[in-house]
Every structure is written in C-alpha cells, then in structure tokens.
Design goal:
The complex is a heterotrimer of chains A (366), B (259) and C (378).
Chain A (H helix, E strand, L loop, with lengths): L5 H15 L5 H38 L15 H11 L10 H17 L18 H9 L2 H11 L3 H32 L4 H7 L10 H15 L10 H4 L9 H26 L19 H23 L5 H29 L14
Helix pairs in contact in A: 1-2, 2-11, 2-12, 3-11, 4-6, 4-11, 6-7, 7-9, 7-13, 9-11, 9-13, 11-12
Chain B lengths: L1 E3 L15 H16 L14 H7 L20 E3 L9 H5 L5 E6 L8 E7 L8 H5 L5 E3 L14 E2 L1 H9 L17 E4 L9 H5 L5 E5 L17 E5 L9 H5 L5 E4 L3
Antiparallel strand pairs in B: 2-5, 3-4, 4-6, 7-10, 8-9
Chain C lengths: L1 E4 L11 E7 L2 E8 L7 H5 L7 H8 L4 H16 L5 H29 L4 H21 L8 E2 L2 E2 L7 H23 L3 H7 L7 H7 L4 H5 L6 H4 L12 E3 L5 H28 L34 E9 L2 E9 L7 E5 L1 H7 L1 H5 L7 H8 L3 H5 L1
Antiparallel strand pairs in C: 1-2, 2-3, 4-5, 7-8, 8-9
Helix pairs in contact in C: 2-3, 3-4, 4-5, 4-11, 4-14, 5-6, 6-11
The chains are: A mainly alpha (366), B alpha+beta (259), C alpha+beta (378).
Chain lengths: 366, 259, 378
C-alpha cells in the first residue's frame, strides 16, 4: 500500500506497530489501521474546525473595521484553543426540570453525526478510505440528522426560548433540505454518479458552478440555512431568543454545539467545493507548476474551502437576519422552483452533451 | 419647511441583485481595514500619545481620534499641597461626598492644615472640585488608569495626590473664571457678638476684626453682652468658601449681592 | 404562552421587562413592566444644590446626557432668574445637536444589531466615538459631561475645535450614505422593516407619543421649530418627516434628522467663529446653593437664599419631547424637580404597535422606538 494516501499512512503505522508483536492476526492489523485512520481524520477535522473559527473571527474583524483575536499565539491562532480549554474546565449545569437523557444526548449526537460525515468526504486523490459509490447520498443523509438532535436538546432543556428555537430550527432545516437535495440532483444528473470522487473527476476541466449556477445559488442559500448562519440564523436569533436552542447549555456541552456548528459550516463549504468547484483538481490548462508539488490536491482543496467559507463570512458581515415566515416563504416558493429549474437545465445539458464556455466535450454526462 | 425623508433612488435595493449594495459596502470596508482597522490596540497604542495621534486623526484617513482631545480630560486629580489653603470648597462642592479634608503636616497647632483626600471608589469625575478650587491647586490630569487590587487603595491621600501632581501630567487647563459681581459675604451687624470665629477660621485671613464704638446705654436699656468688634471682609481676597457663614454662632453673616 | 423578555434579555437595551403573550410566533398581548432602573433622580434632586443636579442629568439618559443637562439647565435658569449670554445659547445648540448625532448613531448601531447586522453596529460605534472625542476635547468627559452650568457653560471651545468639527461633519455625511447603503439598500432589510410596527398619527397623538416616532407618522411637530429655545429660531433647518409610520419610516426620519443636525452644526460653528464673548452670565455664583456638608463637617451650613421662581422648559430631546419643571422656593435646593421622559410615553403605547406582529419583529420594533431605560425610570 502506498504512502501516498492517508489510509496508506495509517496502515503503515499499524504494520510497524504489529511487527513489534509477533503473531498478530491480519484482521487485527486492518482494524488497527482503520482506528488510526479514524483518529487522524478526527484530529484533522477538529483542528480544521478550530482554525476555521479563527479564520472567521479574523475575517469578520476586518469586515467590521476591527482586528479580531490577536493576542494568544501568532495573530491569535491559539485563541480558540484557549477558549475551548476554558469551556472544557467549566462545570456543566442542567436545569432541574430538564430531561436528563435528551439534554446530554442531544449535543453529543449532534456533534458525532457531524463528525461522521468526514469519513465519507474525499479530500484528495487517494486520501480517503476507498471510494463509496453513494458517498454523496450518505453525506447528505447524515447531514440532515441535525434537526432531530437539535430539537431533542431544545425540547429537553425545558425552556421556552429553547423550544421556540428548536421549532424554528426544525422547520427551517426541513424546508431547506428539499431545495438542497433537488439542487444536488442537478449535479448528479450532469455527472452521472453519486460518488463524490467521480463527481470531482468529472469537473476536471469545467466546474459545475458555471453551467449549474442556478443549482449553486440554491445550494449555497440552502447551506446557509442548514448551517444556521446569518441571514438564516433565526433559530439562534440572539435579539429575541437569547441563544435559541442552546440557551440552557454551558461548558463543554455548549462547546459541542459550537464545534458542531462550525463542523457543519466546514462540511457545507467542502460540499460546495466538491460539487461545484472542482474539488481538489485544477483545470488541466493551468500551468503545471501549480499542481506539481507534494500535497497539491489538499492545498487547493483547502484554499477553495476557505474561500467558500469566506463568502459565508462576507454574507454574515453585511446582511440582517430574515424572519421565520419570510424564510419559509423563500424556501418553498423561490428555492424549490429554482432548484427544479436547475434540474431541468441539467437534464437539457446532458441531452445536448454540450456545456457552455468550454465548448462541446464529447462523452460527458453519459 | 419640512424635509420629507424618503429613500433616495440610489439607496434602494437593487431589484436584480437583492443584497448587492450592502455586500459591496462591506467589501469596501474590508479592503479599507486590511490596511489598518480603526481600532486602537490599547495598551500598545494610546490616543494621548501625540505621535500616535498624528497617524490616526480624520485628516489622515483613519478616523480614530479627532486630535487634541486629551488636554481637557477629567482624570485623576493632582493636588499641590503647598498652595492649598484648606478652604474646604472642594469638599463642599463634591456631589458624591468622596472628598474628606484630612490633616497634613505644615499647619500651626491651632489651625491644622487640611487637604482633600479623595475616595475614587465614590468619585464620579465631575470636576466640580477643581472648578471650585480658588487657588488652582486641585486640578484634574489625564491619568485614567486606576485599577487597584484592594479597596482601601482607592482612597488617595493628599500626599498621594501630590505625587500625581509631581508627575507633571498634562493638567486640565480649563479654569473657571470667577464671575464679576459675584455674591459676597455680608454682615447683619446688629446680630454680631464679635466672637472672632469667622476671622479665626477664614482660610485666606481676609477677615479682620475692627473695633466698633460701644454705644452708651440709654437709661433703662440694657446693652447686649458682646465684644465690641465687627468682621470686615477684604473682598478681593475672599474666595467665597462660606466657612465664616458656617461657623458664625449667631447666623449674622449671609450671602448678599456685591456692595 | 407568556414569555418574559427581560429584565435580562438582549432585546431590552436596558433593564425593563416586556412580557409577551405569544401564539406560535404571533404576539397576542404584551405587558411592559418598567421601574427596574429607578434611581429616584427627582427625589435626590430635592436634596442637592442647583449645579450638582447636572451630574444626575448626565446619568438620566446615558446616550443623550448633554440634552438632558440642557433641559434641566433651562428650567433652573428660569427658576433662578438667570439669563445666559448669547454665545452660550449657540454653544448649547452645538452640543445638543452633536449629542443628537451621537444618540442617533447609537440608536442606529443598536437597531441594526437587533436585526442581526453586526458590522454596521461597529461602524456606528466607531463614528460615534469621533463625536465623543469632540465632547472630551471641550467638556473633559466622554459620557458624563457636566458641561452646563446655571448661567452658562463650563468653558468655551478650545482653539481649533470648530475646524475639527467641520472635518468630522464631512466625514459623518459620507458615513450616513454608507449606513443607508447597508440598510436601505438591502432587500432583506426592507422586507423586514416595511409595514412593521405601524403607529398611525391619530394613535400617536392619542398616546402622547413624540419625537421621531411622531414625525415618522407624518405629524409636523418639532419643538425646535414650534417653540424655539436657545438659538434655534436663528438657525435654518427642516423637520424630517415620513408618512408610512412603520419601522422604515422611523429609520428614515432619524437619518434625515442626523443630516439636518449636521446642517445646524455647520451654521453654529460658523457663528461661533465670528462672535466671541463670555460664556457665563455675570453675577452668578460659581456654585449655587448649599452643598452637602462634607464628612466631619456635618455642623456646617451654608445658607444662601434666592428670590422664588418656577422654571419650565421643554426641548426636543433625541428621543422625543422632554420637559423639566423646577420649583425654587427660595432655599438652597430646588423644592421640586420633575421630568417628563418621552421614551416612557413611547414605551407605554407599546401594545398598539406590537400586538399582531411576530416574535421576531419585537426587537426591530422596540429598536425603532429607541429605548433608553435610564430616562424611562429616572
């Protein structure tokens, strides 16, 4: 197995460890390799999430004519680790009337379900644990577990604000699942596969963002709603609902919510990059110097992801929050028709097998 | 003469790109703050530092401060003990009762010298005390950092206030001029018993007791038992502290219009 | 379901409680509860000499301190039969208009924060700081100014202030255009705020609502024009009016008022440049009345008596029409001081402009009222 992939690194470590103890059965080595792979993935996603929070703070700071975190570590890079440490040390309180099971399972399941998605997201060629034929579908299914867990934790905290926030969250997420899935259908129709790796490979020379711009708009708007970020952060609208569904949470449980929120923001950005912006690939007509260095795939992948997240931050910095009924109206009456239109467009593209701006490329979409 | 406030055409939302205008505005601000955000990194950059101030005023395009804003700042007091005349005016004018007059060395045993001691736990920095100070010995400086770890340290003794004075921080230059024809101390002569209390307690020694002729008693009339002296106030030296009015046992001194 | 929005709630901007009865997301009934911030300023005033009340006025409304100083000082001057010199009147107009700018910018910041807009909040705070710098440069304080005195103001402007004010005004006019692009230019803002919290002119008059809320309903009423005080009758400006009576209209009225304030300030600084003079009336004692006896001097009494008088003044405060009533019975302290807070009245009418809207609409509507609890409870 080559060391060119993450799983290769993991199994190399596993075999090295196993060689220290003679007579270890082969399936145990594979299991160990899987565990190490999972641990590396977990660590990478968590660190990335925390760096993402730093990135948002710095970016938002510049949008707001201030500086953001700047004193802990270089340019405040360690600030979020310090914050996390503080939250970790805090006592967790539960309201006396709250439902214990739901109160504790809600945030944990929310966090875990968000983390699981990283297992199916390809990062670069060979840097995933094999290719799943339905990875896109699996990722979206796990992604849509969230309203359930949010609602569980909101209801079990036995607080009126939490309940209202949970209700809003559930309504909003369910309403925006539909246009997201339809928009994804457009991508699937054009690429002809549910496998994220294949989808990325299909976009080597032309990004789906160009022909499927309608689907991209719907997907970005839907992702903003799914991630509960401004302008669609009304479940946590602090002006009227204090903190929405996590009002009663503090300490590490709150940190779970916070981390999971940013994990989902990261996943949303990654999905946009994978589905519409060509993933880790760059078009073949760019100078090869840009792609011919070690870890180039991951580098470009991260650059794209952070740029997409930067757009989310930009939106957050300049737009107010919408209202529940307006949000739902936009979701059902604008986004769903737009998404349907984008599917029709995608189908038409497949039929003519011809994509704009690039010219006719034979064999695409079949 | 009514301006009807209507949204101007160029400020209405773009009908095609819903949110293009605010996002463009935010992006412009983003580019501007990439050079330098308007925030001041406080412990490292200070507005009262003239060098820093020159970089950031409106004229330079970074609207952080407008310039010479610090000279009139009402911060911690500075007390020049040497010129203090113990007139009590600062303590009288304090709305928060945070000034207490405490004895400092330097007075004679009969009339101890008293200077203000300020409790910064109570002080509201209104500046009435420095406005009231007739000698200009209690002023306010630009010092504003006052964190202490124990509550008693908030109380600044006259000596500590004098240390602030000796640090020669920029003083608040505003001196409230005494208005012309200010109310003066007047005497209701028939009530006076010549007890010398006012002259004794006057911080500026502007009251002198002068003899008054003792009237001859008419038959059947009883002369009041008193010292036949009367206070005369030297108006140009008087600081209008009102101590004499306060100590007068017969309430014969009062505020009156200028003679 | 009744929910308590307050006394500790992000919507309240202060310490008061809005009890809301909701049905789903719709507001069915409301019950404002005020009084959490009552400090008894009127009662304390009866025990202080006339100048010491100024420190209380700064704390009555913490975003428009100098306007309240102006209000009180006008009443106190009438009660004490003191006539301030003319330059003082212009200086007072200058600081009141700058305070109006600062207060409206603060309102803007808080209002957009209620809508979830975070950057304009910081832009507003940044630009307000310039005005606070000006206040600091000639009063010495950034929030509690203690600038007015019975008979005048504490001091004249330091040299160069008028030029700096002109530059700041130019800067601010650019910023107002930026504010408008961020709010009015946003479709989301318009869908949020149009036809929201409507309080028609008739209801405004019935409840006694004043200030920008009244002018947003199309009623042409501004004390600066209707009963000119200080130097307002010698200055040119317009009353900002809108007719839709909703949140957007209040936004527009406040924005237009800020532009008019800039216009007034430009005229005033021009006048101040050419008319030097005293800023304190002659024949006014430096401190009026008998202050507290300090610690250790409880026996001291400083007796001072004035000819009796009654002072009533009304000004167009940034939030609305405020009134002060000072009774001077001849003693060292005022016999009675009474204030009318415009925000108290505007808040009391809350039921008529909140019921029927969504829960999510409460923050922007209450934000458009510009609540300052300090002056509500006094």
């Amino acid at each position: 197995m080559s060391v060119q992939s993450l799983y290769g690194v993991a199994s190399l470590i596993a075999t090295t460890l196993a060689s220290l103890v003679p007579g270890v059965p082969g399936y145990l080595v594979t299991l160990l390799a899987d565990l190490i792979f999972g641990a590396i993935l977990l660590a990478a996603s968590m660190i990335n999430t925390i760096v993402l929070i730093w990135y948002e703070r710095k970016l938002l700071g510049r949008f707001m004519d201030r500086r953001g975190a700047m004193h802990v570590g270089y340019a405040g890079l360690l600030q979020n680790f310090a914050d996390g440490l503080k939250l970790f040390r805090k006592n967790t309180y539960m309201p006396s009337e709250a439902d214990r099971l739901g109160f504790y399972t809600g945030p944990t399941a929310y966090m875990v379900s968000s983390l699981v998605i990283f297992g199916v997201l390809p990062i670069s060629t060979g840097w995933d644990n094999g290719s799943l034929p339905l990875s896109l579908l699996l990722a979206l299914v796990i992604f849509s577990f969230a309203p359930l867990f949010i609602f569980i934790s909101a209801w079990s905290s036995n607080n009126k604000y939490s309940l209202m926030g949970g209700m809003r969250s559930a309504a909003q997420m369910i309403a925006y699942e539909v246009p997201i899935l339809i928009a994804v259908v457009a991508v699937v129709v054009v690429s002809g596969s549910f496998d994220l790796t294949t989808i990325v490979m299909e976009q080597q020379n032309y990004w789906f963002a160009i022909p499927l711009v309608l689907a991209l708009i719907v997907f970005v708007a839907g992702m903003l709603a799914e991630m509960e970020r401004i302008p669609f952060d009304l479940p946590e609208a602090e002006a009227e609902l204090v903190e929405g569904w996590n009002t009663e949470y503090g300490g590490m449980l709150f940190a779970f919510f916070m981390l999971a929120d940013y994990l989902r923001a990261l996943i949303g950005s990654i999905l946009i990059v994978l589905l519409f912006l060509g993933g880790w690939t760059l078009p073949t007509y760019v100078p090869s110097a840009l792609t011919n260095f070690p870890l180039a795939g991951i580098f470009w992948f991260m650059v794209k992801t952070y740029l997409v997240f930067g757009v989310f931050v930009w939106v957050r910095a300049s737009l107010p929050r919408v209202r529940t009924d307006q949000l739902l109206r936009v979701g059902w009456l604008r986004m769903v028709p737009l998404a349907l239109a984008s599917v029709v467009l995608a189908a038409a593209l497949v039929v003519v097998k011809c994509l704009p701006l690039i010219g006719c490329v034979p064999g695409i979409g079949s | 003469m009514a301006a009807s406030a209507k949204p101007k055409e160029e400020e209405s939302p773009n009908p095609v790109l819903w949110v293009a205008r605010p996002m463009a505005t935010a992006a412009r601000q983003f580019v501007k703050s990439l050079v330098r955000p308007s925030t001041i990194v406080y412990p490292f950059e200070r507005l009262e530092d003239p060098k820093f101030r020159d970089q950031v005023r409106v004229e330079s395009g970074h609207p952080i401060g407008i310039g010479e804003v610090w000279d009139n700042y009402r911060g911690v007091h500075a007390l020049n003990i040497a010129t203090c005349i113990s007139c009590n005016l600062c303590a009288f004018s304090c709305p928060d009762l945070c000034i207490e007059m405490v004895t400092v060395p330097g007075g004679d045993p009969k009339h101890p010298k008293k200077c203000p001691q300020i409790d910064y736990g109570k002080c509201s920095y209104c500046g009435f005390c420095s406005d009231a100070c007739p000698e200009g010995c209690l002023t306010m400086t630009t010092r504003y950092e006052l964190s202490v770890s124990r509550r008693p340290e908030m109380v600044f003794s006259p000596q500590k206030l004098h240390e602030v004075f000796e640090r020669k921080l920029p003083m608040n230059p505003i001196r409230v001029e005494r208005p012309e024809n200010e109310d003066a101390i007047r005497l209701d002569a028939p009530l006076c018993i010549g007890c010398n209390a006012c002259a004794r307690d006057c911080p500026t020694n502007c009251i002198t007791m002068v003899d008054t002729p003792k009237p001859t008693a008419k038959p059947g009339e009883k002369l009041p038992r008193r010292i036949w002296k009367e206070p005369v106030v030297n108006d140009s030296d008087c600081v209008r502290c009102g101590t004499c009015i306060s100590v007068c046992p017969k309430e014969c001194l009062f505020w009156g219009t200028h003679p | 379901m009744w929910i308590n929005m307050g006394p500790q709630h992000p919507m309240t901007h202060g310490l008061w409680n809005l009890r809301v009865k909701i049905d789903g997301e719709i507001v069915r009934d409301i019950d404002p509860e005020m009084g959490y911030l009552h400090r008894g300023i009127e009662k304390i005033s009866e025990d202080r000499h006339y100048n010491e009340i100024i420190t209380l006025m700064d704390r009555t409304c913490y975003v428009a301190g100098i306007a309240w100083e102006h209000l009180y000082i006008q009443a106190a001057e009438k009660a004490l039969h003191v006539v301030p010199p003319e330059r003082t009147l212009y200086l007072r107009v200058l600081v009141e208009e700058m305070q109006r700018l600062a207060s409206h910018i603060m309102w803007y910041a808080a209002f957009v924060q209620d809508l979830g807009l975070m950057s304009p909040f910081l832009y507003g705070m940044r630009d307000r700081d310039l005005l606070l710098d000006h206040f600091q440069s000639f009063t010495g304080g950034r929030l509690t100014y203690e600038y007015m005195r019975v008979g005048g103001v504490r001091n004249d402007l330091p040299p160069g202030t008028t030029d700096r004010i002109r530059k700041t005004m130019d800067w601010l006019m650019d910023r107002f255009a930026e504010y408008d692009r961020l709010c009015l230019g946003s479709q989301i803002f318009r869908t949020r705020c149009d036809d929201l919290g409507v309080l028609k002119a008739k209801d405004c008059v019935t409840y006694g609502v004043t200030g920008p809320m009244l002018r947003a309903a199309g009623v042409k009423r501004d004390l600066r024009k209707d009963r000119p005080y200080a130097a307002y009758d010698r200055l040119e400006f317009d009353i900002a009016l809108a007719d839709t009576a909703d949140v957007t209209a209040r936004y527009l009225v406040r924005m237009e008022e800020m532009r008019q304030s800039v216009r007034i300030i430009r005229q005033v600084v021009d006048w101040l440049d050419h008319h030097p003079g005293p800023v304190m009336a002659a024949n006014v004692p430096r401190w009026l009345g008998a202050p507290y006896a300090p610690i250790g001097h409880e026996g001291y009494l400083l007796k001072r008596h004035y000819s009796k008088g009654v002072g009533l003044s009304a000004i167009e405060e940034p939030h609305g029409e405020a009134t002060a009533y000072v009774v001077n019975e001849g003693g060292e302290h005022p016999y009675r001081v009474k204030f009318r807070s415009p925000v108290f009245v505007n808040l009391s009418a809350a039921k008529s402009y909140l019921v029927g809207y969504h829960v999510a609409d409460i923050p922007p509507i209450m934000g458009s009222v510009d609540v300052c609890v300090g002056e509500v409870d006094r």
